[in-house]
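thought: fold this chain, then report.
action: predict
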Amino acid sequence: MICDVATLPDEVPGTAGVLIIGSGPVGLVIARHLAELGVAATVLEAGGELPSAVDRDCLHIECSDQILTGAQLGRTRQLGGGLNLWGGQLARFHAATLDAPSSTWPLAASELDGPFDIAARLLGAPPRALTPPPLALATMRAELARFELEAVATSWLSAPKWRRAVWAELRHSARIRIVLGAAVSALALDPARGEVRGVVVRTREGRRISFAGRTVIIAAGTIESVRLLLQPAADGRPQPWHDLPWLGRGFSEHLEAMVARIHVTSPSRLADFFDPVVGPGSKQTWKLFGRVALGEEEDGCGVVMLSAPGNLRHSLAEVRLLLRTLSPRDGLASLPRLFEAAASSLREVGPLAFRYVRHRRIGSYFRGSPSLRASVEQTARFDNRLELAASCDPLGIRRARLHWHTGREEGMVFQALARRAARWLEAEGIGRAELPARLLEDPKGFAQSADEGLHPAGGARMSLSARDGVVDRDLQVHGVSGLYVCGASVFPRMGYANPTLPAAALGVRLAQKLAQRATDAERSAA
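observation:
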C-alpha cells in the first residue's frame, strides 16, 4: 500500500513490524524480503511520487574543501529514491575487499554469498546474472596474473527502474506500507533502556507526526542516513551515539579518470576481452581489477575498463540525421552523402551481427583511439567527514556539511593500474598504451582532477567495537537496541564495485536476522 503522510493522524501507533527510512533500492529490497519472510514493514519516504523544488532544496549540502558535485547530482528525493537514477549495474564485492589482511570489514565474504543472489533477484536480475561467462580467450585471463591484474565481470540490467509488476506488488502488498512526504527529523529513544521507540516526521504543511516502532532501519542513502544520525533528539538534546568517534567520519567516493590512450594493433584481441556479453535480461562487461600496496598495512584497489570513442552507433546516427534533414530542396545534393554513410554502416553491420548471433557479444568498431578509464577506491580518511551545518532546509531540519578531499594514495592507485594495464596490452600484442604526463608526474594532482563516481560511502561504518565504528556486524548502532543503519554509509571501505548490490545484500542479511528474531520471539511467547 502507498499513501501520503497527510492522511495520517499526529501519532501513528506501533506494530510488530519494522520502520524503514528511505524508499530507495536498499530500503525497498529490505521491505520486500521481510514481506517474503512474513514480517510487515512501513517505509517512510521524504519525497513524493516525483521530486519537487522543495525536495531538491532539502538535498543541498555545504562543502568546505573540495566540491563534491555528485552530492547533488547523484541524489533524488522521491518514491524509489536512487532507483530513478541507477543505471542497473550489479557488481559483487571482490572477496579481498572483505577478507584481505588489510581489510577492516567485520564480515567474511562467504557471509554475503547467499544474500548477494537474493538481492540481485529482488533488484530485477534474472537467474545466474551474476555468474560471469567464460572469456573468449581463456589464455588472456591466465596471463593477467603476471601483471597483478584479474578479470572481473559487471552485470547490467535491461530494466533498472523495476518493472510495472514490482510496483504493482508494492501498491497492493498487505505487508508493505509506503508513506510518502514523511521526512524523518529525529529518532525517538527510551533513554532509560537504551532502546529505539520510533521516529518523528515533519511534513511540508508543518505538522509533526510520531511513528512508534521498536525496530527502525535507516536506509536513506549515505548522506541522508548520516545526516539523520547527526540530528539531535526532538527535544534538542544529543543522542547517545553522538559520542561515537567515527560518526560521520570516513566519508569516501569512487574516483574515475581516463588513464591511457590505446594505439591499437589488434582490434579483434581488444574486443575479445572488453566486448559486452549479452545474456537473458542483462549484459556483462569485463574489467581489469587490481590491488595496489600503499604501505605496510594499507592498500587500495580499482578497475580499468575500455572507453571506445565511436562505433557503429555513429554511422547509424549520421544516417538518421540525414534522413531527418532531407528536404525536396536539398535532398538530391545530400543523397551522395547519405549513400556514403549508409554504405559505411552496412559494412559494419554484417560482422557485428554475426558476432552478436554467434557469440552473444556486442562488438565495436573504433573511430580514433580507444582509451582506458579507471575507477578507484578512495582511502577511508578519518578527517573526511559529514557534520551538521548551521543552516536548515525548508522543513527546518539542519543541513549536512561535508569536509572531503582526495590525496596522493588515490593517484598512486590510478598510476599503478594504468601501468599494469599498459604492460598487459603490449604483452598480448593488443596495442601500445600512452599514459597522461600528469598521471606519471603528479599523481596527487591527477587524483584531485578526477571525476566523482556518484557513489558516496562511509560515515556510519561497521566495526566490532564502538571505538572503531558506528554499527556492529549486524548493522545495529552500538549501544542502542533496535536501531539499524543499512547502505553504503556502513562500508568500512568501498572496494571497486558500484555499491547498490553490496548494500542491498547487507539489507537482505539484516532482513533475515530480523525475521529469525521475530520467529524466535513468537516461539518463546507460545
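thought: worth noting. The chain is about 30% helix and 20% strand.
final: C-alpha cells above.
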